[in-house]
Amino acid sequence: GAVVSQHPSWVICKSGTSVKIECRSLDFQATTMFWYRQFPKQSLMLMATSNEGSKATYEQGVEKDKFLINHASLTLSTLTVTSAHPEDSSFYICSARDQGTYEQYFGPGTRLTVT
Amino acid sequence: AQSVTQLDSQVPVFEEAPVELRCNYSSSVSVYLFWYVQYPNQGLQLLLKYLSGSTLVESINGFEAEFNKSQTSFHLRKPSVHISDTAEYFCAVSEATGNQFYFGTGTSLTVIP
Asked: pLDDT-based confidence at B76, cuts 50/70/90?
């Protein structure tokens, strides 16, 4: 089946620094990828839709200058959390959509802890 | 916008007992429906989905869900649960012509030995 990977799986950074999270579709091409954020014991909240070769579409309330998304190829999207603060600590999950089956394949997630 | 309601945040059930996890959605257009399972510190895994056709869909590990258009529901059921079924379960909806997934708040299923 289709596989989506994320790197790193766990990252700890200091407040004020930037962190880049990679999302890769390993065996299929994804023109559209999604970035979600999940707080403990809560559901996934869509942050933005990443489209290959164009600007990402951000959900209301998500700061696009803080959460930079780049979808430079059909198999890679990156999320950069700039000037991270402790409140950015969360579980970030990406997904890639198969245009044929309409199914979203989820990455394993990246746990970000900002100290 | 769509909304998905999972009425039960926590469901404890004894091993080998049946279980139903409820999911209701609000939509006036055609939708696709999904159930995902999440184990601790892991991403989401697709359990089953309804796109079209038969309203009863099944997974390989004994779960099933039935799409009820009149009640706008997609409840998940299993006749006999195992300890390994302990996890968080999310219901999700996507418009048939749309792009975005809308997730419910999740139901934590705990199977008691």
From this structure: very high
